[in-house]
Design brief:
binds guanosine-5'-diphosphate, five-stranded parallel β-sheet, about 45% helix, single chain, 14 strands, 21 helices, binds magnesium ion, alpha/beta
Length: about 500
Amino acid sequence: MYHRCEPLFPHKQKQRSCGSLHVAKHPRQKSWTTFMFIVMLASLYYSFQLTRAAIPYHRSIPTESLTSKDHPPEFTGLREWERNLPQHNLDLPFPEGEGGRFVFFANSKAHPVGWNNKLNDMLMNTWLAHESNRAYVFHDFVWTKSHYPRPSSAYRDWVPRTPLNAFISGPSAGGPWEVGDNAPRSVSEDWFNIVCPKSERRYINTRDLKPPLRSADGKVVFETWQKLLTDAPEKCVEITFDIWFWSGERSVSLWDAFKVSPVSRLLGTSRLVESAIERNRRLFFTAGHPPSIDPFDNVLSIHVRRGDFKEACLEHAAENSTFYNWNLLPFLPDKFYPPPARVDTVPDKSKILSENEKLYLARCLPSAVSIVQKVRAARKEYLNNPSFSAPDSFVNVDSRHSKRLLDVLYIMSNDGTEWLDDLKELLRKDGWGRIVTGRDLKLNAEQKDVGVAVDMDIGRRSAVFIGNGWSSFTSNVVHRRLVDGKAPISIRFW
Ligand SMILES: Nc1nc2c(ncn2[C@@H]2O[C@H](COP(=O)(O)OP(=O)(O)O)[C@@H](O)[C@H]2O)c(=O)[nH]1
Ligand SMILES: [Mg+2]
């Protein structure tokens, strides 16, 4: 009857509660429909499982979630901050402002190399600019795509790049010089494009000066460029260097002056990297350590450089390369002496080469077993060293040379394979109770973009650091440790 069909709720609910358009179903017919529905669901689920099994693992990761949840950060605020730096002002007096002098090193932006090969260039070129009374032009870090910490789907229509101030702070990224230092402050590439349109630039390629400098010492190379940049009447200069200067002994003579230069002394950790360290600081505390202690006074960190180094180490063997840049400093332990260059008349060339390869791989791509041995020895030598004294923060905790020193191990690596888990297990068996790896760090989208700098800063802060002598990553950690005043015995190489 109609009144039985009165709605409990208005409109749409009316049909459901009354079912007035359908004839009521027989109970047997109802259970048959339910059965068919369950069979359909089961077969759908089964065929989905089959399809899933047929797709390779990496393709089965949904692209949607990678791009939507792990999208490259825009750094809008940081970009705005860089745009508004006070030196970006045409009215400033010489040597800044419209009448200032500028130098842009196009190579460090363009070369398809890792962050640290570029950082090397950036720091030395800032110093060159400073010594030539020109403003250094800083720019975004443009990633080599294979190093970018996100899948290619994240940057399909975009070249991966990160503002420099996400990685570092200091004069190389537009920070001020010391009071009384009247050198012009660094400017952004965008500002350089305004104050120095392309038509007004003098372009210099390293090829133009190279022939007499090809094997010259670093000091001579530096002074030659410094003179050229100081004497050049042009307001705007753009230079293209190559990257071959760093992989040999020639750069070492620049150390004493570079170490105390304002570029080195004022180089700082970026706020973003600081925030990542703060967020993960608790990982480095072991039970019983008062929070007043700097946890990194207790950390031995290791740079386990792998991945592309599997080939790079063999290339170093083929070229009899020395260590890289600051890893070559004469007062550091664990020297590597390249074997004498091969003589082409040697009859069994392949045998010699393979010996060379073994020699290089032992130091450049060490096995897990030899890593464990080196870590054990480095810890012991550091703690037993007579010149070593425990950091002040430990004085009230325990006696000096306490067993509690160096009981946290940090592994930084570009290896994402199970090999790293096996290494961790071996180290655990060797007595390390607390092992932290880069994979344990909790990083937000911005912090993830600068994960390489986060690892480097942990290496900088750690009581002891062991790195790879052929790596520019290691070399830049060595630079900051020595500028901070850390002892050479705390800097080791495989
Ligand atoms: N997060 C992290 N990234 C690394 C590590 N080692 C290498 N990488 C990555 O590999 C890139 C290449 O290394 P680079 O900085 O050029 O130093 P190098 O190749 O060792 O001389 C780096 O920029 C990082 O993106 C590491 O220990 N941690
Ligand atoms: Mg590199």
